[in-house]
Specification:
alpha+beta; two-stranded parallel ribbon; two-stranded antiparallel sheet
């Protein structure tokens, strides 16, 4: 075994040592067990009923769900939100965009970039300059 190791190049020996060290260190990892809750208070924490009203109607409930898939998913969700912004509806006698009626956005992975940007900056998601397109979608990451 030692003769075989000596025949390896220096880079291969360094790589093998790194792999053995990584395996050794990761084998020692220990994670504490989460303690169960003693009580559950339904009135605290992040719950939909505790959120502030966003000014949209209570009679129309719109949920968006954006999937993952990297930049492709972010681009698709951006396009969906653009179309919702451009789609005008009349609801309860008021004209508004369908995006104004969105109550909840659920997202994972790539779709979360668009959802988070919209959650933080609202209509700046659609800014032509210095918006989501320039800061994320058109970047070579």
């Amino acid at each position: 075994m030692i003769r075989l190791v000596r025949q390896l190049s220096r880079d291969a020996r360094v790589a093998m040592i790194a792999m053995v060290a990584t395996a050794t260190v990761s084998a020692c990892a220990e994670y504490p067990e989460n303690q169960p809750l003693e009580t559950l208070n339904e009135q605290t924490g992040y719950r939909f009923h505790a959120l502030e009203a966003g000014g949209n109607s209570e009679s129309l409930f719109v949920i968006l769900a954006f999937s993952g898939g990297g930049t492709r998913a972010a681009a698709l969700s951006h396009g969906v939100m653009e179309k919702l912004r451009d789609t005008r509806i009349t609801w309860e006698g008021k004209s508004k965009s369908l995006l104004d009626e969105v109550d909840v956005i659920s997202s994972v992975s790539g779709g979360s970039f668009t959802a988070a940007y919209y959650g933080l900056f609202r209509d700046r998601l659609f800014d032509e300059e210095n918006g989501f397109l320039d800061k994320f979608l058109y970047k070579d990451i």
